[in-house]
Amino acid sequence: MGVELPLLSAFVARLVDPEIHLAAYGGLVFPIALLVEAPIIMMLTASTALSKHRAAYHALGRTMHRLSFGLTILHVVLAFTPLFDRLLVPLLDTPAAVVEPARLGLQIMTPWTWAIASRRFNQGALIRFGESRHVTLGTIVRLIVGGTTLAIGYSLRAPGIVVATTTVIAGVLSEAIYASLRTRRVVRGAMAPGEPADVLRGRAFLRFYVPLALAPLVTLIVQPIGAAALARMPRPLESLALWPVVHGLLFLLQSTGFALSEVVISMVERPGAAAALFRFSVILCAALTAIVLVIAQTPLAGLWFGGVSGLRPELAAMAGTALAFGFAVPGARAMASWYGGVLVHGKRTGALTESVVVFLIVCSALLVDGVSRGARPGIEAALIAYAVARGAEALWLWWRSRTLRAALGG
Predict the structure, then answer these.
(1) Where are the alpha helices (DSSP H) in 271-328?
(2) Nearest CA to 183 among 233, 245, 119?
(3) What is the pLDDT of residues 140-191, one digit of tens each?
(4) Which of 11, 82, 247, 294 is 20 to 30 A from 321 (CA-CA)?
(5) pTM, whole model, 2 decimals?
(6) Which residues, at least 6 apart from 319, have a Cβ–Cβ distance to it below 8 Å?
(7) DSSP assignment of 61-72, as one string?
């Protein structure tokens, strides 16, 4: 999955008006789409933890579909009604040249939330029953379908925002379909029928899931806040255009950290697993931090941003300089996934919400400071805020999980 955003940026950067279309995708379309889908992002974690048998799986599935329907309606309202011009454009202070491409892109992204919800729900069940290889195979399907769509759009010289959003939608829909088909075999085979009495319902379910849902929602509020801040800091168009490129590389490096959370949830109870998982998390943190620093401080930055991403030399140099300020992001994500996985396993999901509130406060405060000072390009100020906030989030989770880790021996 982490390959997708850098790949999109590389192709869009080679089409007409690349800065405008990259800014439309990274500055409005992607942040708003992520914000709308935020309540269902943790469906993967919930399904991994709760889909112990068919009764629980089907109950969670019904919740997933109801929630996805409501969020899709919200997406439609934002993309197809005057709220786009009256709310999103002034809220994010979107440059005039970016408005119409962003509107079209957000409209194309309409199926996004439901597809993401279905994919993550079914992938959780696959992980729970030892079929995680199908998560990888589903991602390969997504890359093949998305890559084919991307190649077709590029060959037709379609507008960059159309190429980017149709690629994303084609890829995620194909992955969702694959995950659904593979999960059916698990449901009919390894998954026991279960009893309705064993299903987490009502207030008990809300106490478990609402903190999980709030965690990414609070985190993703930073996306539009960040876009609004970038539009108000020095070199706004360049910063908005560079954000999906630089963030895409950081997201690619964070991908192993994202996966770690579900591994911890499903394995931490095994004898000796807690200590082994902690050692792995520390090694992963150190390795990811080193990789970012090596890329940022060597000619690899020019190779990636200029050669692979296709940015013009001035923007490639600006991206390489900015990347160094985000060096701590992937490593902090890895450690946060270790601590967060322990907390979810212990049913203390409220601590995850607390941690992202810490993230939101720290990141927002630093973004406001960056706007008020106006001392450095927006992309640099945003990455400083993002990195410090990720570190603060990981520290909070470390503190909140300390008793559970001690009990597990990790």
Answers:
(1) 273-297, 300-302, 313-323
(2) 119
(3) 999 999 999 999 999 999 999 999 999 999 999 999 999 999 999 999 888 8
(4) 11
(5) 0.73
(6) 242, 245, 246, 301, 305, 309, 311, 379
(7) HHHHHHHHHHHH
